[in-house]
Amino acid sequence: MTEHSNPSKVVVLGGGYAGTLAANRLRTRADVDITLVNPRPEFVERIRLHQFVARTGTATLDYGTLLGKGVHLVVDTATRIDTAGRTVRLASGRTLDYDYLVYAVGSTSATPAAVPGAAELALSVAEFESARRLRARLEEVPRDAPVTVVGGGLTGIETAAELAERGRRVTLVCGRTLAPSLGAPVRGQVADPARCHRARGRRGDRGPAGCRRPCRRFRRRCDASERADRLGGGVRRAGAGGGERAAHRRPRPAAHRRDADQPR
Ligand SMILES: Cc1cc2nc3c(=O)[nH]c(=O)nc-3n(C[C@H](O)[C@H](O)[C@H](O)COP(=O)(O)OP(=O)(O)OC[C@H]3O[C@@H](n4cnc5c(N)ncnc54)[C@H](O)[C@@H]3O)c2cc1C
User: Fold this and answer.
1) What contacts 45, CB < 8 A, 6 or more positions away?
2) pTM for the full model?
3) Closest among 227, 232, 197, 230 to 211, alpha carbons compared
4) Which domains, from first to last, does the chain contain?
5) What spacing in Å lies between the alpha carbon of 64 and ligand 1's midpoint?
6) Could you give the 3-state DSSP secondary structure of residue 88?
7) Is there an atom of ligand 1 within 6 Å of 88 CB?
8) Are residues 254 and 186 in contact, defined by beta-carbon separation less than 8 angstroms?
9) What phi and psi, each to the nearest 5 degrees, are found at residue 78?
10) Ligand 1 centroid to residue 99 C-alpha, Å
11) What are the distances in angstroms from CA 41 to CA 13, 30, 131?
């Protein structure tokens, strides 16, 4: 590879999946100088945070094992981008010049203000720092303390299933539809009925033992899944309607999530 005397400066903001891949991919060019800015000295595998919380896996990796030679890591947080001047201000007060900027800061989770108490009491699984607090909190409470997971999207389902697999008593609270981002056929795969559970539904409060009728389909899936029996009694879904379903095992990632879930 030819060394360029005046390489273009590329600053990548955010060392998640996107930023790390971008920085490494840019190394195929000889005419760039690559700086990756990330607030933590370790790569956080967000897709493993529910496992980190449940203590069934880790969620951090040393950048040294991920970043190719020539990518400069700056542990800091971008606070301001000056596009006219082509500079990035960092929380430490340092300023980086750039010719090209890759903006890959990911997403953050917002605690809905509409839910009273959520901001003060709930702990999010979506970011490393809050996941670490949640993990510590779970260690403090008795093993059989009830755990409520709010949110019936894929992250909520995965978290509830992971905790149930560790023997926690988990209730998953969601809206009318479990895993709404999935199409109906896939949704059926993710959330087979394990046990009917009527929460405060249209017909009044029936309590968690409102219906104990096991589902034929669940039994069939238990036959096929070695872990289903352990999860079957562990996770209940509480929602708005009656005749609800339980997520009884860790769902297979849906098609659009599969790429990120593969080992790298
Ligand atoms: C529990 C859980 C399970 C998931 N499972 C799956 C799954 O199975 N499949 C799937 O496809 N997706 C999954 N996701 C979603 C997936 O994690 C995100 O889509 C993915 O992390 C996005 O990658 P990213 O690189 O854009 O952002 P991120 O991974 O969020 O990385 C962004 C990085 O930028 C850093 N950053 C933020 N602000 C700044 C700043 N100002 N300056 C510098 N750096 C900054 C952050 O600290 C972070 O390191 C899951 C998410 C969670 C929470």
Assistant:
1) 58, 59, 60, 61
2) 0.77
3) 197
4) 8-103 (3.50.50.60), 141-255 (no CATH)
5) 19
6) strand
7) no
8) yes
9) -75, 130
10) 25
11) 14, 26, 17
* Residue count of the chain: 264
Mutation test residue for ligand 1: of 11, 20, 47, the one with most atoms within 8 Å of CB:
47
Q: If you measure from the C-alpha of residue 213 to the centroid of ligand 1, how many angstroms do you get, rounded to a whole number?
A: 40
Print pLDDT tens along the chain (264 aa). Answer: 556 678 999 999 999 999 999 999 999 999 999 999 999 999 999 999 999 999 999 999 999 999 999 999 999 999 999 999 999 999 999 999 999 999 999 998 788 788 888 888 899 999 999 999 999 999 999 999 999 999 899 999 999 999 999 999 999 998 888 899 998 888 877 766 443 333 333 333 333 322 323 323 222 222 222 232 233 335 655 543 332 233 333 333 333 333 333 332
* Ligand 1 center–CA 25 separation, angstroms: 18
Task: Judge contact between 76 and 95, C-beta under 8 A.
Answer: no
What tokens does 240 get? 């708005």
Q: Ligand 1 in contact with 234 (CB < 6 A)?
A: no
